[in-house]
UniProtKB/TrEMBL annotation:
Domain of life of the organism encoding this protein: Eukaryota
Source species of the chain: Ditylenchus dipsaci
Name of the molecule in the record: Paired domain-containing protein
Entry-linked Gene3D superfamilies: Winged helix-like DNA-binding domain superfamily/Winged helix DNA-binding domain (1.10.10.10)
Subcellular location per the Swiss-Prot or TrEMBL entry: Nucleus
A GO CC term attached to the entry: nucleus
Length: 75
């Protein structure tokens, strides 16, 4: 999505209006307006951080650590 936002912002900076960008990229006017507003507020096209459970890393090291803990508890 940030690629399309970058295209929207680039066209906006080149002087195109919201309606023109909407027609050129075949996206809703609201999408264009939101992308421009986000860029003007944050200076970035990147996705915002999302709330939720953090990603866990399932590595061989973590798997072995859990196995060791389970073995230790069963002794």
């Amino acid at each position: 999505m940030s690629d399309s936002r970058a295209g929207i912002v680039r066209l906006y900076q080149e002087g195109h209006g919201v309606m023109d960008i909407s027609r050129l990229l075949n996206v809703p006017k609201q999408t264009v307006s939101k992308a421009i507003k986000r860029f003007e507020e944050t200076g970035s096209n990147e996705d915002r951080a999302r709330i939720g459970r953090p990603v866990t890393a399932t590595t061989d090291e973590n798997i072995q650590l859990i196995a060791d803990i389970i073995c230790y508890c069963n002794e």
